Amino acid sequence: MTARQGRKAAAREARLAQEAQALSAAAARRRLRALSGIVAAVLVVVVATVAISSAGGRATATTGGRLNGAAVSASLFAGIPQHGTILGNANAPVRLVEFADLQCPYCDEYSVQALPALVRDYVRTGKVSMQFENLSFIGPGSVSAGRAAAAAAQQNRLWNFIDLMYLNQGEENSGYVTPSYLRRLLDAVPGMNVPAALSASAAPSTAAALTRANTVATQDGVNATPSFLIGMAGGPLRQFQPRTLTSAPFAAAFNALLGGSR
């Protein structure tokens, strides 16, 4: 394993540990309530159920198992407005545009290592809006996943879907992006109308969304993933090349722009 792969694996484990902790805390609250009148036998069942759930957390959707990160991903985006490909306050002073392929391991690295802190500190607070431009050049799985993501965008749930995709990403072009895999991701997105999303993913509009994103990338001189454009809302955007795919260089760029906007 390379140093980069090690960092990404550690970041992924940290995010999944948050989910396990949340599940354990919820189970503890249920057990406390049960003490007021539920028999001890029921408590044993609850504890056993939580243990089984936690033990299954490492199984991934790529193997037909339980999804990684569903609870922590839902919490990350809960209450934040989404409109199509855009996440956050429409009047946020700073914009970040991300160009990514859902099979790209470096895009996965950014999503796992940097995105949670940036959403918490800048998007949720109304300082930054994020836009996702879905490129699909790695292989057929990129196209299938991209069309499902475009369908999720039609229901204003794109960011939930792509985050789950990255948390459960397999090896590129290994054939893991199957209809059943994509359906499990869609099923795990809060509020998703899955039949409607599946129907939309096969419609011409989702193919057109991928074509549009590739056209935008060409116009902006983007030729690699992930790539980023950053700037003040309503003004020109510039290409941004972070030193690392962690939150620190993005936070520094946001702070510089926000400081200049005061």
Structure description:
The protein is of the alpha+beta class and about 260 residues long. The chain has two domains: about 5-60; about 65-260, Glutaredoxin (3-Layer(aba) Sandwich), CATH 3.40.30. About 55% of the residues lie in helices and about 10% in strands. It has eleven helices and six strands. It has helices spanning about 5-35, 40-55, 70-75, 105-115, 115-125, 140-155, 160-165, 180-185, 195-200, 205-220, 245-260; strands at about 80-85, 85, 95-100, 130-135, 225-230, 240. The protein has a six-stranded mixed β-sheet with strand order 1-2-4-3-5-6. A hairpin with a 5-residue loop joins strand 5 and strand 6 (about 240). Helix 6 packs across helix 10 (about 205-220). It is globular. It starts with a helix and ends with a helix. Residues about 25-60 have low confidence and may be disordered.
